[in-house]
Amino acid sequence: MNDRPDLAVKLDCDGVHVGQDDMPYAEARRIVGPDRQIGVTCKASRDLAMTAGEAGADYVAFGAFFPSSTKTVTTPASLEIIEWWSELFEIPCVAIGGITVEIDAWRVDIAYSGTQKCLGVPPGLAPITVSDRARARFVERSRSWYLDLAMIGDYVGPARRYHHTAPVSMVYALHAGLGVLLGAAVLAMPTVLGAGAPAGPVRVAALLLAGRTREAIGVLREALEIDSKRADALNNLGVAYLAMGRTKSAAVNLERAAKHRESPRILLNLGKVMEDAHEPAEAVRAYDQVLKLRPKDSEAVAGSKRLGVPTKSRRRPRKKTPKTPKEVARTVRRKTAPATEEPPS
Predict the structure, then answer these.
(1) For 257, which of 105, 149, 171, 235 could close a Cys bridge (C-beta 3.0–4.6 Å)?
(2) Which CATH fold would you assign to the domain 1-99?
(3) Where are the domains of the chain?
(4) What is the CATH number of domain 188-314?
(5) How many CA atoms lie within 13 A of 17 on its CB side?
(6) CB 250 within 8 A of CB 242
(7) Is 193:187 a contact under the CB 8 Å cutoff?
(8) Mean pLDDT split into 10-residue runs, the chain, 345 residues
(9) Farthest-apart Cα atoms in the chain, separation
């Protein structure tokens, strides 16, 4: 709950976040009690963060880190303060504001966001990503129906078990907001697509978004000349060729990318390309490799189903439970019992 410790208690929330202008930490703690978490906004101040930490805050928040059109940023923060805090203190810290989050590169296990704060679309959705490591540690029975991640995983995965009615109107609002964001990205492209712009993934994505596929391929080829084994560049080159309809070239580059790094995303792209190239055996092989890395990957399961291949064989075999002494004895008697002769017809 944001700003309102009293509502956090009434709604039985796990915690509350208070800003410097809301109320002091001690007052918030008095209201919510000793068991709920409290986070404190510290803007760009090291002194405020240390004061909150000494008082007993469960986490401190720094920011904002970027300009905002919806809120006046009076004290812009830099990433330096995050590094400083993380090196010196054990209390967690969070960054306020929209930042690029490298989920896989940072090995983040669970991350969620809100559609309102960074995109400005109607509130109510919380996009979430969960790593395979985190999924392996899901509790068997969650205390909360709404936050039962195992059930939500089955709801969005191939099992399609019911958990909730899809919030269609909010999903449409998110789709519209992302469309506006992409439009803004196109308007900002001259700064990304200039002659001196680096040959990074942002430039490649911008070129593809602008429909300048041939230029994107040229940028990726330059990157490959520097390092011929860059799996990311090979993967992006394959996707670019696919956008041009050159399926064979896409397949060649994606196969090279898959040899250099067994990434589920690269293998999924390879499977889709092989489907387009009418090579079902190669597509199935790619999807099989994905399922070995991520046994419940919904895209790989869906791809296999499209090709008419059952997915039960790819599931991990169940462990056989040991037989009881009575079952063992019964099996032995059954095996050693003489066969009865059939009566004459």
Answers:
(1) 235
(2) TIM Barrel (3.20.20)
(3) 1-99, 100-178, 188-314
(4) 1.25.40.10
(5) 11
(6) yes
(7) no
(8) 90 91 93 94 94 94 77 81 89 79 83 79 86 86 85 83 87 81 58 49 60 68 61 72 74 78 78 81 85 83 79 47 56 50 49
(9) 100
